[in-house]
Amino acid sequence: MNLAKKITGLGAVALLSIGLAACGSDEANSDATVGESVDYKITGIDPGAGIMEATERAIEDYELDDWSVISSSGSAMTAALQKAYDKEEPIIVTGWNPHWKFAKFDLKYLDDPKGSYGGAEEIHTIARNGLKDDLPEAYEILSNFSWTEDDMGEVMLAIQDGAKPEDAAQDWVDNNGDKIAEWTNGVDKVNGDKIKLAYVAWDSEIASHNVMKIVLEDMGYDVTLTQVEAGPMWSAVADGSADATLAAWLPVTHATYVEKFDGQFEDLGMSMEGVKIGLVVPTYMDIDSIEDLKE
């Protein structure tokens, strides 16, 4: 299957929005199939994201020949979801948790009996080779970093409610000194050492990187955050232009980059377990499995 054929551009997002607005809840409750009600479109995110590759794989695995996934961005995807949800219109999006949308909307994952999206994912911290020797204190803090979906959710929801990312992160740090102490226990402070973290513009990663920025700055580091897409993020760690990222989703989402950059980075360990990717719909839609999209 041709990826370029199946993943259409941002212009298609506008067309999908017009189509959704036109169909309305009455049509969603008519005899139209799910595919007809959404024009056989799945609303996706950045074209280089692993979840987009997994969705292409799902389209092939389930023989959804009439379907395509639209590339946009995380914010465009949630905006389309918000618009459809407010009118109880049908929509199918690429989804992952942790994400604030699961707290704001009543959503469900479509069952994936063929395993196109894999099982439970983990978020890992990866670093450039040599970081342990160059910045041993930061290496130890990053290796110790671990938190829960609820922790991350507090920061994401605060940002979604209008707080600046740095302010939401600071509030969380101020209220979670016990967790911060676990990450920094026994680590000496430094004096202005520079460190660069790269991350993708997912709400989850915006939350984690702003928290870590504050933690490292409190330990004396001069921290630079750089927002990029998934491919450049992995490339930056592999070539040393970034020191680390907290945004490696394994084993499925970023499998392509793990293989591509094998031996050019160090996995510092899991920071969160039980995360997930897949196709997501509002609970008001009468559909439960990806297999149902063939009907």
TrEMBL record:
Q: Where in the cell is it found?
A: Cell membrane
Signal sequence span is: 1-21
Its principal location? membrane
UniProt xrefs under Pfam families: OpuAC
Q: Where is the ABC-type glycine betaine transport system substrate-binding domain?
A: 31-174, 193-294
Q: Which PROSITE patterns match?
A: PROKAR_LIPOPROTEIN
| Name the record gives this protein | Glycine betaine ABC transporter substrate-binding protein
